[in-house]
Amino acid sequence: MGLFSDEAGRFIGGYAMSDEHMLKTAAGLSEIWDGSEITRTRGADNQTFVLHDRRLAMHLMLQPIVAYRIIANPLLMGQGFLPRCLVVHPESRIGSRPYVEANTRKHPAVIAMSERFTDLVQKGMTLKTKEKSQRNVTLDPDAKAYWVELYNEFETRSGKEYESIQAMSCKAADQTARLATVLAYANNSDLKSIPLDAVERAASLMDFYLKESLRLQEISEEDQRIKLAEKLMDWAFKESDPSVVVRDSENENHVEINLRGLLQRGPNRLRTKAKAERILKFLHEHGIARKLPKAKFGESETREAWEIQRCESD
Questions:
Q1: Residues 180, 199: contact at Cβ < 8 Å?
Q2: What would the mean pLDDT of 236-257 be, rounded to a whole number?
Q3: Which pick of 113, 148, 213, 250 has the fewest CB atoms within 10 Å?
Q4: HSE (CB half, 13 Å, CA atoms) of 114?
Q5: Which of the 8 DSSP states describes residue 13?
């Protein structure tokens, strides 16, 4: 089965991925990825269907503004759906795409790929007439040894440079084996085992996807920091309690905030010290906030206070 769309906003914004059904949909797709049985219950007919040994291929194309809603979704990450996906966000080429007179359908590589895929589809349709169309393949001994090295490497790096994408890196070895199988099968649909070169090529692809996942994670975290920083700024310049915020009578673009007051009365998402300090330091890095000398907060004393400057754009 296949779930393909070049306008996946319909899927993301549809019934299956609504707030009420997102967890159920993600869990179901994750089970299919794992190879679990697919159960379908039809209440109207009081019937239950169970499908065995089925596989789903999914390829969704999204605009960035929609994609980041998914990438930054903690439910989809924590449930395990996103780590089972290979996500890529290529840089825009707008402004560097001069018109080229060409018929891509006549390109030798496209023709060869089309012919190969046609052969595979026709062979697959023939296999469906047999009792069992699924079969297991193993790794060649040298391919298995190389894959074991990769597994151990991914495991080690999951606690180091891949720590921020552990959910992804923990499945990297499995993904590599799957990619290797696809690459090998595309070359030889009668294969009995996976050769070393297929695993090596799959490892190169997996390395790319892990680096891409790290890059997208950084973009997502930066976006979240900006949103929280905006919430903090908005709160600071609207808060009227002088025990929490002190305004500069000579400069309305400067305020001082009491960290304790922020933790008690600030935006809900900033009421933990670790998160509040992280956003304050983020503002400091951009020249918007600075930590005040110890015990200074207006005319009173406090353990920790910050001065915040309104952005020029405001």
A1: yes
A2: 82
A3: 250
A4: 8
A5: T
Q: How many structural domains comprise the chain?
A: 3
Q: pLDDT: is 96 or 302 the higher one?
A: 96
Decide: residue 90, CB within 10 A, 0-12 exposed, 13-18 middle, 19+ buried: exposed
Domain housing 280: 237-309
| HEC assignment per residue over 233-283 | HHHHCCCCCCCCEEECCCCCCEEEEEHHHHHHHCCHHHCCHHHHHHHHHHH
Query: Both tokens of residue 7?
Result: 């306008």
- Does any domain span residue 25? yes
Kind plus residue range of the DSSP H or E element containing 167:
helix 166-169
SS3 293: coil
- Closest C-alpha among 112, 114, 137, 111 to residue 189: 137
Residue 189 has pLDDT above 50, yes or no: yes
In tens, the pLDDT along 149-181 reads 999 999 999 988 898 888 899 999 999 999 999
Token pair 């949103």 is at which residue? 227
Chain-centre distance for alpha carbon 158: 16
Tell me: do 37 and 65 sit in the same domain.
yes
Claim to verify: residue 170 and residue 217 sit in the same structural domain: yes
% of the chain surpassing 70 pLDDT: 92
Calculate Rg over the CA atoms of the chain: 27
Q: Is the pLDDT of residue 314 over 50?
A: no
pLDDT for 223 beyond 90: no
- Tell which residue, 228, 264, 229, has the closest CA to residue 243: 264
* CA 126 to the chain's CA centroid: 37
Q: Which of 76, 86, 96, 84 is nearest to 35 (CA)?
A: 84
pLDDT at 43: 67
Copy the structure tokens of residue 273: 């010290």
